[in-house]
Amino acid sequence: MDLFDDRLRVLSGNVCFDEPMKKHTTFRVGGPAKVFVTPQTVSELASVIRLCREWKEPYFILGNGSNLLVSDAGYRGVVIHVGRAFEQIRVEGGRLFAGAGAALAKIAAKARDASLSGLEFASGIPGTVGGALVMNAGAYGGEMAQVVCAASVLTKDGEEKRLDKSELQMGYRKSCILPMEYIVTEVEIALKSGDKERICLKMEELAERRKEKQPLEYPSAGSTFKRPEGYFAGKLIMDAGLRGFSVGGACVSEKHCGFVVNKGGASAADILELCRQVRERVLKKFGVALELEIRLLGEFEHPYS
Questions:
Q1: Which of helix, strand or coil describes residue 284?
Q2: Of 10, 235, 259, 282, which sits 20 to 30 A from 214 (CA to CA)?
Q3: Would you say residue 2 has pLDDT above 70?
Q4: 3-state DSSP call for residue 302?
Q5: Residue positions annotated with a catalytic role
Q6: Cα 3 from Cα 178, distance rounded (Å)
Q7: Is 260 helix (H, G, I), strand (E, B) or coil?
């Protein structure tokens, strides 16, 4: 492993070890990553990926950790952080080009300032545009599939590739990115000319709705469960009598039952156990199996299913 570490340091000057993942997830939980590297260019990112594959080292691509639960034991592999070096945003006519590390709030603001409409729904979604493309993130009737027209990616062999919208295979909370083991580097978004004042008003309206209905005062990973066909996860959980239900420091939000929050001192085990019990109760009462929307990283003593 020392030789691997040495080679990694040659490729990137931004390498650290036993990095606490609670510093890099919106749940604010998670044990240490064995290796944590932050590439500064697409070329450097490709080189790190090729090195991991050459040494058969497991790796995970991290944005801002807004849809992620890392185990208390951490991750015994390489976390590759697509961070500030990939935050560039530019506007060309009605197209917006954003690096994978750009925050959705920032690209929505950039679109607003250019009087471009279509990204209002994304203005309050925590996360990066790369992560949003991976899971086709959405809110309030909008989703990334409505605005994305292409993306630049790296293959698992570190080769650059450009995918058009049809090749991205975007569906409800999914795309081809994870199944194909691609890594997003840039996203191209097609928007429409709009009235800046109306765009601002829409973003303000959505911000108020989020503040009123979502538990923004607590660490969370956003919506915890996918929407089952024909149902709403939050309503099923509420109707199962689980509003405020807790395990350790993890709790079903009293403001919105579709959110699991860290009310203070929660462990990753607490959060996953809470999710398991919610799933069991909803399945028993309504016959609907809730699927996690959040991703799990690391080893958990008790699996979700």
A1: helix
A2: 282
A3: yes
A4: coil
A5: 173, 223, 293
A6: 29
A7: strand
> Do residues 144 and 173 touch, judged by C-beta distance below 8 A?
no
Query: What are the residues facing 225 on neighbouring strands?
Result: 292
pLDDT of residue 188: 98
φ, ψ of residue 30 to 5 degrees: the values are: 125, 135
DSSP single-letter state for residue 128: B
For residue 59, list its beta bridge partners: 78
pLDDT tens digit string along 198-224? 999 999 999 999 999 899 999 999 999
Nearest CA among 250, 223, 222, 219 for reference residue 236: 223
> Please, what is the Cα angle at 24 between 235 and 85, to 5 degrees?
120
Half-sphere exposure of 230 (CA within 13 A, CB side): 4
Residue 14 CB-density burial (10 A; 0-12 exposed, 13-18 middle, 19+ buried): middle
CA distance 305 to 290: 10
Cα gap 185→87, rounded to integer Å: 10
- Global confidence as pTM: 0.93
